[in-house]
Amino acid sequence: MQLDHDRIYQLLEQAKNSTQKQCEAAVCRAENGEALDYLDIALLLEITEPELLARIYRVAGNIKKKIYGNRVVLFAPLYVSNHCVNNCVYCGFQHCNEMPRRRLTREEIQQEVRALERMGHKRLALEAGEDPVNCDIQYILNALDAIYDTKLDNGSIRRVNVNIAATTVEEYRMLHEKGIGTYILFQETYHKPTYEAMHPHCRKSNYDYHLTAFDRAMEAGIEDVGAGVLFGLYDPKFEVLGLMMHNAHLEERFGVGFHTISMPRLKQAEGMSLKDFPHLVDDETFKHLVAILRIAVPYTGIIMSTRESAQMRDEVLRYGVSQISAGSNTEIGGYHQEEAPHEAIPGQFQLSDERRPLEVIKTLIENGYIPSYCTACYRQGRTGDRFMQLAKSGTIQNTCTPNALMTLLEYMLDYGDPELSEMGGHLLENELNKIENPNVQRIVRRNIERMRAGERDLFL
Ligand code: SF4
Ligand code: SF4
Fold first, then answer.
1. Hey, which of 122, 321, 374 would you mutate to test ligand 2's pocket, going by the most ligand atoms within 8 Å of its Cβ?
2. In angstroms, what is the span from residue 391 Cα to ligand 2's centroid?
């Protein structure tokens, strides 16, 4: 994998010098569901005219509804170690920041997991800094065992996505054999000179090694990989085309592109100042980027974290975001600390949405979505190209909606309050009636009865 920077510059230049008519033609192609090439994407990125922008948002919203229905998947990050040998200039965990460094013991991980289970979480993203001595692969594998082994009442973690530093085929194979969900790695920026400036004198400095990490992960058998860039490091238009080319490379080589794309935006963190970053992305541009990614890669999940405000998250859900984190804490040991306060270690970055999952769930329902804790695809072997085929044919909705309803009921029964019971009860009945396939509707109704009688973890 090599990223042709000159080609991206040329495409951006061509789009910049385009006419209104050419931009409109790209919007029409998107509206007609035609496959878009890189120039089309570059043209969509250039659009500022309000009427054309409104059409882009409409197309993005329609694509999201058509492929995923109105479910929104919820997850939480779990930070297990803040040891880090790298000097990423935008990150609170960078090596030169003086702060207490530690990794959680097995018992502490289990305390964290119990706190997350008490909130109702089923799906986690394990996060750790890079440190081959203090946080090696064996530590990560043991952490995964600790998470999967921890059950509290009806609570259990059913899928753990892993976000750790780029590594070797051998170590990716170990992760694969342990049964991880998606392997997540952010390129941070696809622009090589910026990448090198952002990662001075450290293991992460090697742009090519980082860029080829998904190739090694897929060679090792990991089928679902989750990409991302940190918007704000470089020109976001360049980053979007970088993402598209990286995705196309994986599709060509392995038959399947990104399972998810995360959309973090640069935030204030310990030891850095936002004033030093000239490419910060404003709210309007950010919404535009979400919508264009939804159009460009319709079958890829788009993830938004609690770096964004509640208002922004609620808004971009309309244009394409399909997964959000809820109740997040980026401190090491932070979830348990919320329950039993002790000395705080600063988190990786500042959070903007500090709502608890219960509140997020109620807002989602009020806005017409079905909150989902579904983890079924990974557990049913619907990964890699098998998942993509279902997404491309639109049949994934036949499992997304029923599973969203069943996991919502599970949440209501185990972690809800009377207000949620009422809101969720109405939603359940309405959405059940909308399931067109009579067999599926019958199975879900029967499962709902079984869950009301005490069974758990039923899914399609
Ligand atoms: Fe370390 Fe990751 Fe932060 Fe870089 S972004 S300093 S690798 S924790
Ligand atoms: Fe995700 Fe699959 Fe569940 Fe749909 S059915 S929410 S795609 S895990």
1. 374
2. 10
* pLDDT in the model for residue 391: 87
Confidence band, pLDDT 50/70/90 cuts, at residue 394:
confident
Please tell me the predicted confidence (pLDDT) of residue 344: 53
Q: Is 204 in the pocket of ligand 1 (CB under 6 A)?
A: yes
pLDDT in tens, 346-391: 666 666 777 899 999 999 999 999 999 999 998 999 998 899 889 8
Can you name the residues that pair with 303 across neighbouring β-strands?
Answer: 262, 323
pLDDT at residue number 348: 66
Ligand of minimum distance to the alpha carbon of 82:
1
CA-nearest residue for atom 8, ligand 1, is 129
Instruction: Count the alpha carbons within 13 Å of 350 in the hemisphere toward its beta carbon.
Output: 11
Specify the CATH number of the domain 69-355. 3.20.20.70
pLDDT tens digits for range 276-326 = 999 999 999 999 999 999 999 999 999 998 889 989 988 999 988 999 999
Domain boundaries, the chain: 5-65, 69-355, 393-452
Q: How confident is the model at residue 69, as a pLDDT?
A: 85
Residue 143 Cα to ligand 1 midpoint, Å, equals: 19
Determine if ligand 1 sits within 6 Å of the CB of residue 230.
no
**Any ligand 2 atom below 6 A from CB of 405:** no
How many whole angstroms separate alpha carbon 381 and alpha carbon 387?
8
The better pLDDT of the pair 339, 145 is held by 145
Phi/psi at 136 (5° precision): -85, 180
Among all ligands shown, which has an atom nearest to the Cα of 407?
Answer: 2
* Distance, CA of 127 to CA of 207 (rounded, Å): 21
- Give residue 350's pLDDT: 66
Ligand 2: centre distance to CA 214 (Å): 22
Task: Report pTM.
Answer: 0.96
| Six token digits for residue 399 | 């499992």
Report the nearest-CA residue for atom 6 of ligand 2: 400
CA distances from 391 to 38, 298, 314, 344, 386 (A): 22, 9, 24, 42, 9
* Ligand at shortest distance from the CA of 158: 2
Cβ 40 under 6 angstroms from ligand 1: no
How many other C-beta atoms lie within 10 A of the C-beta of residue 414? 15
78: left (phi over 0), alpha (psi -120 to 50) or beta: beta
Going by pLDDT thresholds of 50, 70 and 90, the confidence category of residue 397 is: confident
Q: Are residues 278 and 194 in contact, defined by beta-carbon separation less than 8 angstroms?
A: no
